[in-house]
What we know:
single chain; mainly alpha; 5 helices; extended
Amino acid sequence: xLPVNAVSPHTPGTTPRVPRAxxxxxxxxxxxxGALAAVAGAFAYVGVVDPNEPGHYPACPLLRLTGLxxxxxxxLRSAHAVxxxxxxxxxxxNAPAVLGYAALAxxxxxxxxxxxxxxxxxxxxxxxxxxxxGALVLVFTVVRNLPFGSWLHP
Length: 154
């Protein structure tokens, strides 16, 4: 503790940087391993409890209230199909969800590789990419609810 009349070693209004102790590889990989365990548990549950059987999962509120398919409708069915190795059925249930599973698997792999080397994971996508993805999801949602887009229904 500094005496009352002592000068602080940092600029007023800022927090001093405290050096972190180096962490071992196992400690650095604990968070990605925990995330993998949680996702694997969720996929295992969806693989065992079939979403195609009524009564196992709640219905989509948007579909129930309006009759319109949201962009996530069919996501559980696609996850169930992925767990059982049926990629064609997964794509038919919800193709963007399957692409999302693949993107998250790649992101997790990058996270593990960076964590193993002691580097933080930085996710800074350009805003044009985020707007493009949002537009694609919007177009997918609109098209799947039009008569000619019935092939996109889950």
